[in-house]
Design brief:
8-stranded parallel β-barrel, alpha/beta, about 250 residues, 8 strands, binds phosphoenolpyruvate, single chain, 11 helices
Length: about 250
């Protein structure tokens, strides 16, 4: 049975312009439906659109988030960087940290841990991405990888109620491939076990990300352990994004 408190996170990556924000009107309508009351939509556009997006949706029940942050907490001589203080000032409430596309560019578990701490300091809610590569899955070391990413990413963080985990198998991002429900359920349960061992709140959400689309959303949402989706490609098309939401909550 579908969870009645689902998160729908739209990760626009390096896409989008102000006209695309206009298209969020139809999503604002959905967010106002009575049956949507307990669900959440979070848009994560590029930094340059955060403030415009926030101004557009601030009177609705839609939230805005950034896709990354600098690990430093203070202002300083870091040309081209954006830190959590600057993100907070745009009105954004959420932030994606640890996305595999940024891990690929050099974000280690250590850096990710610093970024999470900096975001929490600014009272941003963190969407912390973890996931194994295809080669790691093949070697059957998925659990090992997930455990390392979670424990190192959360080191020294005692208050974790503002953290949401997004489980994103890297082989599934943008490929059209998704794990079977059995595999996904097993991995999500393993993540929950690690979180419990770290004494994380039982209320901590675990999302799934990786090629979610209008065709597979219903099947994925049947896994009651999943508290929502992080959606990349399909979130750029508002019709597809709406379809995913409708298929999930109906
Ligand atoms: C993502 O951006 O993390 C993602 C899951 O992308 P996609 O939905 O395109 O696979």
């Amino acid at each position: 049975m579908t969870n009645n408190n689902m998160y729908f996170v739209a990760n626009w990556k390096m896409h989008g312009n102000t006209n695309d924000i206009e298209r969020s009107k139809s999503i604002i309508k959905i967010s106002k439906l009575k049956k949507f009351k307990n669900h959440k939509i979070i848009y994560c556009p590029p930094y340059t659109l955060l403030k415009t997006f926030f101004d557009k949706v601030k009177k609705s029940r839609i939230f805005v988030g950034a896709q990354n942050t600098h690990p430093g907490t203070e202002f300083g001589p870091f040309t081209g960087s954006i830190n959590s203080k600057l993100i907070k000032a745009t009105g954004a409430k959420y932030i994606i940290i640890g996305h595999s596309e940024n891990r690929k560019l050099g974000d280690t578990n250590f850096i990710i841990n610093k970024k999470i701490k900096s975001a929490l300091k600014e009272k941003l809610k963190v969407i912390f991405c973890i996931g194994e590569k295809y080669s790691e899955r093949k070697k059957k070391i998925t659990n090992l990888v997930l455990k390392k990413q979670i424990t190192k990413g959360l080191i020294g963080i005692k208050k974790n109620e503002n953290i949401i985990i997004s489980y994103e198998p890297i082989w599934s991002i943008g490929t059209g491939l998704i794990p079977t429900n059995v595999e996904l359920k097993k991995n999500i349960n393993f993540i929950r076990k690690i979180l419990n061992s770290l004494k994380a709140s039982k209320k901590m959400k675990i999302l799934y990300g990786g090629s979610v689309n209008p065709v597979n959303a219903k099947q994925l949402a049947e896994i009651s352990e999943i508290n929502g989706f992080l959606i990349g490609g399909a979130s750029l098309n508002s019709k597809k994004f709406i379809d995913i939401i409708k298929k999930t909550i109906n």
